[in-house]
Amino acid sequence: MSRDILTLDDVHVAFSPQGLFRRRTAPVRAVRGVSLGVGEAESVGLVGESGCGKSTLGRVAVRLLSPTSGTVSFQGQAIQALPERRMRPLRPGLQMVFQDPYSSLDPSMTVGDSVAEPLRVHERLSGAERRARGREMLHLVGLEERHLDRYPHEFSGGQRQRVALARALILNPQVVVCDEATSAVDVSTQNQILALLRELRHDRGMGFLFISHNLAAVRHVAQRVAVMYLGKVVETGPTARVFAAPAHPYTHMLLTSAPGASRRGAGGATPVGEPPSPVNPPAGCPFQTRCPMVMERCRVEMPAPTPVDGGGEVACHLQTDGPHLAGRPLPETLRAGV
Amino acid sequence: MSQEAERGATLLNVEELSVEVLTSTGWTGVTDTVSFQLRRGEVMGLVGESGCGKSTTALALMGLLPKASARVASGTVWLDGTDLYSLSRRQWEDLRGDDISMIFQEPMSSLHPAFTVGEQIAESVRRHRDLGRRDAWQRAVALLEKVGMPEARARATCYPHEFSGGMLQRVLIAIALACEPKVLVADEPTTALDVTVQAQILDLLRSMGAEFDLSILLVTHDLDVVADICDEVVVMYAGQVVEQATVKEFLHAPRHPYSRALLAGSRPDGDDSTELHWIPGAPPTPGALPPGCRFEPRCAHAHDRCRAEEIALQRHPDGSAHRCVLDLSAPRGE
């Protein structure tokens, strides 16, 4: 991308949990050297399974969390260590929507007040003006004026998620980080929200970092995809290329695991294992413990990102050392392996 | 077209089941005369958007509705010839776990945090079978092996918090299958799981179903899961059954506009087109139902007749059913 508004460069995050009775516990290495950018009017999908570090990365991107090392820049300014006083003027441009609108909306505030609250902090407006903007935002996300004076508990999950979205959008941000923003709602509501995100991208040039475990949603909304596994990005690329010709065995496993008639019809092998603990990630490739095509080299050496035909990069030794995965079906024997 | 002969005999027969819940305005109906038959060895999906009454129906037929706030207003549930609602509490407890068992979306909240998983499986075995401690433990380990728990003997001595969500769901499946029930009711069993683990659990349910000749009632909002594992589908909307069909008919030629709209939204066949579909509006709330067809306010095919009268469920000779004046699977739509 020519110009990214939001850039993460070699970000590492490690948590050192305070054990009970100050027992020393090993740090959880949630994110291990991730670089990622979101450009103007661009939507980047970040996919991976629970515990892969994608939500941690999202929090780092909006500086709810400071990275252990690495830089986060927004509009060309490094924000990872910016004092709160200097961060505040940048906040309107960088917003976040969480998965669970139950816990991100104040139950004692009306929805109208919740949606307009960012305006109190960031803009000098009269109460009437704030209310008008709040109404406008509710319309945008498909809610009605009569909803303004209601409380979060009076709404369904899908409606609450729209409210959370309205609040994130009211300051007209340049980048919105959506962390599983459509994961708790019905498909119908999900699709409506995805369509709205597309529209905002086209009409207002908003950029999105769309974090989700839901491949179908990512496919609909993102132009570029990054696949994370155990704290590392294992593959990036244009959405169409990644879905049609996954270059990393993990991406391949994710895509073939998606339920549906095609999986049933294929009668393919059940994916093996579960991601290992981020407390003690294996040396070498993070995916080696589950990879059906693992080689000796994968156990000792972390593969470097290598360009893939059709765009993007993959961190896999197969790309440099073995039969490429991209664009070709895995040999049956390997597919059925283990 | 009829697959009648291939299917087994009816095992679970839900007849005109209506459930009411207590709201601020009194008892309000949330499901309306829900009927379906689950056959031996069949996997049936009970689908619909949140709040359509699918989980309520599942809890009602398990006798697990919260007593203070929900009740069965009318209807019967037969399990292999036994009228479940005629049972005493004691009889019902004997039957639950033995003939019919249930697994839930959140495996963590279904297990006791202070007992090892082996103890909890063994407890379930001993509750229903005359086995000694040692034998029950052996059975627990064997069950864990069966559900694909690696190092089952060692893992049996671990506590729930030491497991991942996928492994806990395996433990719950082990408990549910401990006494080889005839029917397994699974309420969103893979919704909280990651996609690769979801595939593992679906494959496990499939193989367990085949091995134990088990009938599975799968409550889910995910049509991809339905396409993956179900033989038969019952679609619910606003507390009513609006369509019943084989999974093939449902996916390729749905009769009800709601089914078609749901399918357009999720496209389980992996259509690559990028157009997004959704159903405008929201399902009606119980107690504020539209006068005619309950789907009419959101329906793309609605006309005057739909507002005038309630639409009855039409049963077809091949065992399928739908609740609409139209039949969208018919060549000209009527």
The tally of beta strands of chain B, per DSSP, is 12
Query: What is the helical fraction of chain B, as a range of percent?
Result: 25-40%
**Which residues of chain A form runs of ≥5 with pLDDT under 50?**
331-338
What's the number of helices of chain A? 13
Summarize the helices and strands and which ones pair or pack.
The complex is a heterodimer of chains A (338) and B (334).
Chain A: E1 4-15, E2 28-39, E3 43-47, H1 54-61, E4 69-74, E5 77-78, H2 84-87, E6 94-97, H3 101-104, H4 111-122, H5 127-140, H6 157-169, E7 175-179, H7 187-204, E8 207-212, H8 215-221, E9 224-229, E10 232-238, H9 239-244, H10 249-257, H11 261-266, E11 306-307, E12 313-314, H12 317-321, H13 332-336
Parallel strand pairs in A: 3-8, 3-9, 6-7, 7-8
Antiparallel strand pairs in A: 1-2, 1-4, 4-5, 9-10, 10-12, 11-12
Helix pairs in contact in A: 4-5, 4-6, 5-6
Chain B: E1 10-23, E2 26-39, E3 43-47, H1 54-62, E4 70-79, E5 82-83, H2 89-95, E6 100-103, H3 107-110, H4 117-128, H5 133-146, H6 152-155, H7 165-177, E7 183-187, H8 195-212, E8 215-220, H9 223-229, E9 232-237, E10 240-246, H10 247-252, H11 257-266, H12 304-308, E11 314-315, E12 321-322
Parallel strand pairs in B: 3-8, 3-9, 6-7, 7-8
Antiparallel strand pairs in B: 1-2, 1-4, 4-5, 9-10, 10-12, 11-12
Subcellular location (chain B): Cell membrane
Organism (chain B): Salinactinospora qingdaonensis
Family (chain B): Belongs to the ABC transporter superfamily.
